[in-house]
Amino acid sequence: MFLLIVLILATVFTKISGDCPNIINRSAWGSSETSLRNLRVNPATHVIIHHSTGPTCLNENLCKKRVKSIQNYHIEHNRWDDIGYNFLVGEDGNVYEGRGWDKSGAHAPNYNDRSIGICVIGDYSSSPPNAAALNALKLLISCGETSGKITSDYKLVGHRQVRSTECPGQALYREISTWYNWASRP
After folding, report:
1. β-strand 95-97 against 87-89: which pairing, if any?
2. Residue 95: inside a domain, yes or no?
3. What is the CATH number of the domain that holds 134?
4. What total of structural domains would you count in the chain?
5. Strand ranges across the sheet with 44-51
6. What residues make up the domain containing 64?
7. Per-residue pLDDT of the chain (186 residues; tens, 9 = 90+)
8. Which helix (H) or strand (E) holds 14?
């Protein structure tokens, strides 16, 4: 019961505060540098939530390695020019800069030029991310809205709503469907 009250208060505070979470920049996690296209629609009108599948990370060092591994996979296997997401969130409570606020992603065809793609590191098919990750995710969205990077009437959706996939996992999908600006249709 106490945890539920804390999460509810965190949701209300996040929406009101506009504080930004701790964002680990690209150079701090060892990013390969690339040149990226700017968003066509800026500020973004959609926030698309993903999960990475695979293991989660509970400390900054491990999360940096997971983010670098995801970037390598996206470049080498998918043949993308960089990591596909704008941001990644670890269960350590940190946010890791992928492409950043103003760059077009490679995470959701037909939405990449008008959305911010946020990936929570781990597999959330059967259980949601921990409170640290959920709070960082909420803070990041609020930060984007407050700083004018995301429109105030943005649509929050799960990746499965814009592409045939199980992403962001059933447990995370169920969680975000209760959040502010959730859109049943993108």
Report:
1. antiparallel
2. yes
3. 3.40.80.10
4. 1
5. 23-24, 95-97, 87-89, 115-120, 44-51, 150-158
6. 2-30+38-176
7. 444 443 444 444 444 455 899 999 999 999 977 777 887 889 999 999 999 999 999 999 999 999 999 999 999 999 999 999 999 999 999 999 999 999 999 999 999 999 999 999 999 999 999 999 999 999 999 999 999 999 999 999 999 999 999 999 999 999 999 999 999 999
8. helix 2-17
